[in-house]
Amino acid sequence: MARRKRFALLAEFGVLLALVAEGAIFAALSPYFFTPENILNVSLQTSIIAIIAAGMTFVILTAGIDLSVGSVVAFTGVIATALLQLDLPFAAALGVAVLAGICIGTLSGAVAGLLVTKLNITPFIVTLALMTIWRGAAFLFTDGRPIWDLPEEFSTLAGARVLEVPVPTIVMLAVFAVGYIVLTRTPFGRYVYAVGGNREAARLAGIRTDRVIIGVYMLCGFLAAVSGILLASRLNSGQPNAGLMYELDVIAAVVVGGTSLFGGRGSIVGTFVGAMLIGVLRNGLNLLNVSSYLQMIFVGAVILLAVALDRFR
Amino acid sequence: MLPLLEMRSIRKEYPGVLALDGVDFEVFPGEVHCLLGENGAGKSTLMKILAGALAADAGSILLEGSEVAIDSPTAAQALGIGMIYQDFKLVPELSAAENIMLGHEPRSAGGYFLDRHATGVKAASVLKDLGEEIPMNVPVRSLSLARRQFVEIAKALSREVKILILDEPSVSLTSHELANLFEAVRKLKAFGVGVVYISHRLEEIFEIGDRITVLRDGKKVGTAGVSGAKKADLIRWMVGRELSGEYPRRRKDAGDELLRLEHVAGGIVHGADLVLSKGEVLGLGGLAGAGRTELARIIFGTGPLEGGRILFDGEEIRPRSPRSAIDMGIGYLSEDRNSEGLLLQMSVRENMTLSSMNAVTKGLFIDKKLERGACDRFIRQLSIKTPDMERKVDELSGGNRQKVILARWLMTNSRVLIFDEPTAGIDVGVKFEIYSLIDTLAAGGMGVIVISSDLNELLGISDRIAVMSGGTITGVLRRGEATQERVMELAMSEVQTGSRTR
After folding, report:
1. How far is B302 from chain A (nearest CA, A)?
2. A211 part of a folded domain
3. For residue B172, what pLDDT band results from cuts at 50, 70 and 90?
4. Looking at beta carbons, which residues of chain A come within 8 Å of B339?
5. What whole-number distance in Å separates Cα of residue B97 and Cα of residue B132?
6. What are the helix (H) ranges across B389-472?
7. Contact at 8 Å (CB) between B89 and B149?
8. CA pair distance A231, A250, nearest whole angstrom
9. ipTM of the complex
């Protein structure tokens, strides 16, 4: 047991080690990198992707995938911002906007889950279609133009800080803490691993596999909506092209974090570290004035490297 | 006569385990040499070395008297050594003919194109040598397991095989299919092929084998001619101790009626009537395709119940899913433990409690202490051999895996348990333990249904045996009146398909 545990720890450690090494390199190259301000800045920049990645971890653990998250971010963003323009007191408008956004995201997940389980369509196709549908809906709804003129207080939602820590960072940490507990301490979490490991065996063990699968897509949609609202607040507008290609960044974070695309294996802690690894890389390269074109190549290389290392687990 | 194959002082060490300790093994042309031993005894390791899938640390291999180096499966194939694994290595989408000729397909037009016609002709001639007729133009995935096995054998034969290794070929076969397999093996013998036959079933070995070599803990215990060998001796060689008897003896009278099927129909099953009492072990016999597993699955809620009634404790039930069946107190141990039972990437603990999470959950959270306690109890009660409960189940032997699943069902407080081929691929020693457990469960008042293709097992453990053929129950035999012949007779009886309700 000791040997196995140590091995598993080492594997988890691997990504963490990479993150530490990466941090050390950037700290050496840029004096500004290792300042509290910059660390908080990285966490803020990464939070939007990381929050969705937490949900995506659940989906991928069941051997699924959700490509629609980026479009859900956009659609919830434009709907929420449009509702904020209603002639209501700000608190009420915000409540309606947030609730509506979250309902849309969760519902989108429910639709995906239902199509995956009841019609037995592969998750890739289902969410690819939803990705296009929600993106189209966002453009249609806004006529292709961003929604501006929002109550000023809205931008403080994501812009505010509690004890110097940005609100999105706090949301992110809370999401991961709860996600970790759900995945490791609750029957639902156990079932997620079981369904991803072998859906038929899980079903024969009496697990209501359909419910578990619908549940993970709802969770992922919910978290995409949370990110969508936070992003809209940061941009102080509803952008129909917000969250473009987010699905790829999110999946990269999950995979770099060691979760298997075949399901059944992985952890949400890994996803957190994976998201940070990519976030720190972007931030560090920015500080070093590396061109954004070159950055893309770096990020791709790191993804390959992380996954290649994972093969040795 | 010169041996066809000689393996001398083969040694193989894994970190911490001496898998093979100087093993000698030889095969003569036209001989069926059976390899016997518990799981972990070294049979598979020895054969993998012969087939080039593993490299030996020391020792030599002589083929027809001259030393050969077998450093890859390709090298083994080139030398005429073929191995048929338990899980076949066929391409499911290709036809039987294409599979048989895979890798050395006849070509046409200067070698650039496949010659389909010649492929079919050559494959057919190989199959004809085996005396088997198999539809050649359908994908092999649509063939029965038995037929796929013949395709495998034909595939090996098409390569001029000198030595053919059959690794537990009978696991998925019915008695009838087994007879066909034996026919094929006899033909191979006639061609002068040396056959290595690995099996846990002694009856088969006595029927088909010429000599038997027994391995235990990586050492060769002995080799004996089949004609002079005694079953009890062989078992003692394998396990190093005398078994008190092959089947446990308990037996109380069966109690009240627990489960009753009245004219149950669904899928290929039709008109099935059956009664199971508390404290009874009911054997379910029949050939593959007779509908035994299908019937079990209807009871377990995964097959369609299209007609008839199921009564549990006198009340009609309609299990619609495994979950609903489990909640009613019914459990099912699939014949395919690894893909339909266990979650191989999960721990012993997680596998055990998977069906009864509510029992180890307090509020929203799993109570680790409660969970560990429950696992601990069952590991001891079923004497599951695992270093600890956090071990992944794929590190456990077949017998212990079966016990882990059994523990899962015991945790759900099942009152009816259906075992589908409970000892397939399990060591002789552990088999006895499984029988004892089944026996104990029944003695405790549970109703147990055991589906088995092993006639001896069926006769040995059942209080009554229901036999299926053509999707329905053709007869029920009480202990005492059941014999192999009577079971087989019922299993092969013709069924009027006009009465099917579909």
Report:
1. 8
2. yes
3. low
4. 198, 200-201
5. 13
6. 398-411, 428-443, 455-461
7. no
8. 15
9. 0.86
Q: Is A141 inside any structural domain?
A: yes
Residue found by looking up tokens 């010659």 in the block: B115
Strand partners, B330: B416
Return the closest-CA partner of residue A109 out of A169, A143, A162, A65.
A65
What rounded mean pLDDT belongs to chain B?
Answer: 86
Tell whether B408 lies on the interface with A, counting CB pairs under 8 A.
yes
- Enumerate the β-bridge partners of residue B281: B448
> What pLDDT does residue B181 have?
83
Instruction: Round to whole Å and give the CA distance between B197 and B205.
Output: 8
H helix or E strand, kind and range, residue B238: helix B231-239
Low-confidence ranges of chain A (pLDDT < 70): 1-12, 310-313
Contact between residue A232 and residue A77 where contact means Cβ atoms under 8 Å apart: yes
Whether A302 maps to a domain, the answer reads no
The predicted-structure confidence for A151-173, as pLDDT tens digits, reads as follows: 888 988 888 889 999 999 999 99
Q: Is B365 in Cβ contact with A185 (below 8 Å)?
A: yes
Distance from CA of A180 to the nearest CA of B (A): 12
Q: What angle do CA B30, B31, B37 make, to 5 degrees?
A: 155
- Report yes or no on A2 lying in a domain: no
Residue positions counted in chain A? 313
- Measured distance CA(B181)–CA(B374) in Å, rounded: 45
Burial B153-170 (b: 16+ CB within 10 A, else e): bbbbbbbebbbbbbbbbb
Query: In angstroms, what CA-CA distances link A263 with A91, A159, A260, A267, B301?
Result: 41, 36, 5, 11, 26
Question: Considering only CA atoms, which of B423, B429, B488 is closest in space to residue B461?
Answer: B423
- Name, in order, each residue with C-beta under 8 angstroms of B183's C-beta and a sequence gap of 6 or more: B131
Model confidence over B319-338: pLDDT tens digits?
999 999 999 999 999 988 88
Interface membership of B336 toward A (CB under 8 Å): no
Give the Cα separation of B149 and B152 in Å (integer).
Answer: 5
Residue B225: φ, ψ to 5°: -70, 145
How many Å apart are CA B465 and CA B17, to the nearest integer? 43
Residue B16: per-residue pLDDT: 61
Range of the domain at A204: 42-243
> Using a CB-CB distance cutoff of 8 angstroms, which residues of chain B are in contact with residue A185?
364-366
What's the total number of domains in chain A? 1
pLDDT in the model for residue B193: 92
Separation in Å, CA A273 to CA A249, A251, B13, B128: 14, 13, 39, 61
Q: How far apart are CA B32 and CA A273, in angstroms?
A: 58
- With 90 as the cut, is the pLDDT of residue B59 above it? yes
The amino acid present at B417, given as its one-letter code, is L
Split at pLDDT 50, 70, 90, the class of B494 is: low
Residues of B in contact with A264 (CB under 8 A): 343, 345-346
Q: In angstroms, rounded to a whole number, what is the distance separating the alpha carbons of residues B388 and B427?
A: 21
The C-alpha atoms of residue B282 and residue B274 are separated, in whole angstroms, by 10
Q: Which two tokens stand for residue A272?
A: 């957190």
Q: Which pLDDT band, with edges at 50, 70 and 90, does B119 fall under?
A: confident
CA distance B406 to A213: 27
Average pLDDT of the segment spanning B400-422? 93
Q: Which amino acid is at B179?
A: A
Q: What's the confidence (pLDDT) of residue B499?
A: 38
pLDDT at position B249: 63
CB count within 10 Å of CB A91 equals 9
A181, closest residue in chain B (CA to CA): B365
> Residue B497: its pLDDT value, please?
43
The answer for residues whose C-beta is within 8 angstroms of residue A268's C-beta and 6 or more apart is A54, A57, A176, A179, A180, A183
Is pLDDT at B244 greater than 70 in this prediction? Answer: no
pLDDT at B502 over 50: no
Token couple for B308: 């008839």
Q: Which two tokens stand for residue B459?
A: 């006769």
